[in-house]
UniProtKB/TrEMBL annotation:
Keywords: Chemotaxis, Hydrolase, Membrane, Transmembrane, Transmembrane helix. PANTHER family: PROTEIN-GLUTAMATE METHYLESTERASE/PROTEIN-GLUTAMINE GLUTAMINASE, PROTEIN-GLUTAMATE METHYLESTERASE_PROTEIN-GLUTAMINE GLUTAMINASE. The chain crosses the membrane at residues 15-34. It comes from Trichocoleus desertorum GB2-A4. This is protein-glutamate methylesterase.
Length: 351
């Protein structure tokens, strides 16, 4: 931890923030964030924490965008930073953002739902650290990152909010949250700002909470116990027949009411939708690798045919020409399959 981070953590040790607002967004979410942040007051009695899915090696200028949009100060979160009310902390690309009481830390741990930072991890850490004082917000995005974390916030007595799917550019994330979590408010982005301001201005009413154990710890314990049982030759009944797209390890299927998640012993975790998406990407990569191999096979066969022609080996020349033709035919067929798959995916997203 840097000296500056130590100083920030020490200086805010006694500044307990009344509420932690955690916001998750993906595709189309930046526009919603701008509209939301623009309406938040400068004296907001809460800190705001944001995860937006960015490429791990991309450069995020989201804090600069938010600083131009509203009156709250926005910055990238730093490991060990203290937390101040009236500030916005954005997860930097390539790092999970997690919360403790009055401090935050960054993790380069395994990706969840194919993302780092992952919305679910931020939400779960907020539920553990702030319990009924955590407010989770799911904005525009594809698939369903944030649903499991929002459900944990709700189970700890916190507030669950989703952007109106009819307003969201990509409605999958808010629709998943609404379908699986007992949502308190479904609102357009600008109205979410108003309800947040109202909620954090209300007197604190702590509710009795269940034992403080996060879902990620429960999942890790299930996987570790079943792995140990399997190593001892005992029956492990949670291991699935599916392997992890990230590392190739066995995935354990973990059910929580209607929510199904998969987790490997390394720590990669997936919802059902994100696992299907990752597998589709793996299939596409494999098909493109096959196209490349077939085209290289055709090129080599043409080179051998040319060599045979120079040696006046007509029969061998024809054999290699035929091999080149078959390889090209197979490569073109795979290209057509990839093209049709892409068209079907675009159609599904549009519908």
């Amino acid at each position: 931890m840097t000296q500056a981070a130590n100083h920030n953590a020490d200086s805010s040790k006694d500044l307990a923030i009344p509420f932690a607002i955690v916001i998750g967004a993906s595709a189309g979410g930046v526009e919603a964030l701008v509209r939301l942040v623009k309406k938040l007051p400068a004296n907001l009695s809460a800190a705001v924490f944001i995860v937006v899915h960015f490429p791990p090696y991309g450069k995020s200028v989201l804090p600069q965008i938010l600083n131009r949009s509203g009156s709250l100060r926005a910055k990238h979160a730093e490991d060990g930073d203290g937390i101040l009310p009236g500030h916005i902390y954005v997860a930097p690309p390539g790092y999970h953002l997690l919360l403790r009481q009055n401090s935050m830390f960054l993790s380069h741990g395994p990706r969840e739902n194919g993302h780092r930072p992952a919305i679910d991890l931020l939400f779960r850490s907020a539920a553990k650290a702030y319990q009924s004082r955590a407010i989770g917000v799911v904005l525009s995005g594809a698939l369903d990152d944030g649903t499991v974390g929002l459900e944990l916030i709700k189970s700890k007595g916190g507030i669950a909010i989703a952007q109106d799917p009819n307003e969201a550019v990509f409605d999958s994330m808010p629709r998943s949250a609404i379908a699986n979590v007992e949502i308190d408010y479904v609102l357009p982005a600008t109205d979410i700002a108003s309800i947040l301001t109202k909620l954090v201005s209300s007197p604190l009413t702590e509710k009795p909470m269940p034992p403080d154990e996060t879902q990620i710890e429960q999942e890790a314990e299930v996987v570790a116990a079943d792995k140990a049982a399997s190593e001892q030759g005992e029956n492990a009944n949670r291991a699935s027949a599916v392997t992890c797209p990230e590392c190739g390890g066995v995935l354990w299927e973990i059910r929580n009411d209607n929510l199904v998640r998969f987790r490997c012993h390394v720590g990669h975790a997936y919802s059902l939708d994100s696992l299907i998406s990752e597998q589709a990407d793996m299939v596409e990569q494999a098909l493109w690798a096959a196209v490349r191999a077939l085209e290289e096979k055709a090129a080599l066969a043409r080179r051998m045919s040319s060599h045979a022609r120079q040696q006046n080996y007509a029969h061998t020349e024809n054999q290699f020409q035929e091999r080149a033709h078959e390889a090209e035919k197979s490569a073109n067929l795979l290209r057509q399959i990839l093209f049709q798959s892409s068209r079907n995916s675009e159609a599904n997203q549009a519908s």
